[in-house]
Structure prediction request, 186 residues.
Amino acid sequence: MTVEPIRNKIKIKQMYQYLNGKDSKYALLFKFGLNTGLRISDILPLKVKDIFNVNGNFKEYLVISEKKTGKEKKIKLNNALRKAIKTYIKKNNLSHEDYIFPSRKGTHIGRVQAYRVLKDAANVIGIENFGTHSLRKTWGYWTYKESRYNIGLIMDTFNHSSQSITLRYIGINQDQRDELYSLVQF
Prediction:
């Protein structure tokens, strides 16, 4: 089974609302992945201090060292995500040193647990071929569409070596290719 992006914005909204009703931690994790395109392994260990400076203001960039590649990544968090983070941190009374996605064990939730909760939500909403990479792929898919097919930038963000790898990764399949041919008509 190939993990796919979520191509339906209504289902994205439904899944977010479902997760928020269960546990706001997983709703924020979902929103974080959708808005940054980061791998789940790079999101889970984040602490409040990675996003906010000591004065409690957002840092200009979230700067992480990618677990898989070791490369440094700078991300400008968008307003939708900033608002959700601020609300969540206030509601959960998290301090500067706290993990944003804490587990009961005192560290952060693990990949398997995150997958289990997100997969369960996807099943309830009726989203097929869902895995933790679906969040990253969904970011790529919608960014590709909204940026008017700027594949180069997305390829660079994902550290892919070719456009074809990125296109396959974000699920731009045959019916979307077919759609491109109907855009320009002489």
Notes: The beta strands are 62-65, 72-75. The two ends are 39 Å apart (CA to CA). The domain at 9-125 is CATH 1.10.443.10 (hpI Integrase; Chain A).
